[in-house]
Design goal:
Blueprint lengths: L5 E7 L3 H12 L2 E4 L4 E5 L5 E4 L10 E5 L3 H10 L3 E9 L2 E7 L5 E7 L1
Parallel strand pairs: 1-4, 5-8
Antiparallel strand pairs: 1-5, 2-3, 3-4, 6-7, 7-8
């Protein structure tokens, strides 16, 4: 397995316009909306987004690791004792799944299109 790095940070939110206004005015971050419940941020040093969909948002910040081979990484996680918490799904620009480590931390792995 290659050395994979955290490429994206997803944070929970309740009010997308309020969170966008806060970080834009505070740090000058730029935003791209993907519907009413998700906005991605840039110009922050790390790409990321805020998720306000109660059916999809995690309770804590979610580190997203980029992989060139989603299926191989998933198998490596299972072989190492991790558990898949959300099966692979598509999003604008790629696919991802979520997993938990032995301490119960939830992370995600994505593969760009």
């Amino acid at each position: 397995m290659p050395n994979l790095k955290i490429a994206y940070l997803e944070l929970p939110a309740q009010d997308i316009p309020a969170i966008r206004a806060f970080y834009s005015s505070l740090f000058g971050w730029a935003f791209q909306d993907y519907g009413p419940t998700y906005t991605a941020f840039s110009n922050s040093g790390t790409d990321g987004g805020f998720n306000a969909d109660p059916a999809e948002s995690t309770a804590a910040p979610l580190a997203v690791i980029e992989s060139p081979d989603l299926e191989a990484t998933q198998q490596s996680i299972l072989n190492a004792g991790g558990k898949i918490t959300l099966p692979t799904f598509s999003f604008p620009g790629g696919r991802r799944f979520h997993f938990s480590d032995p301490a119960g931390n939830e992370l995600a792995v994505m593969q760009r299109d």
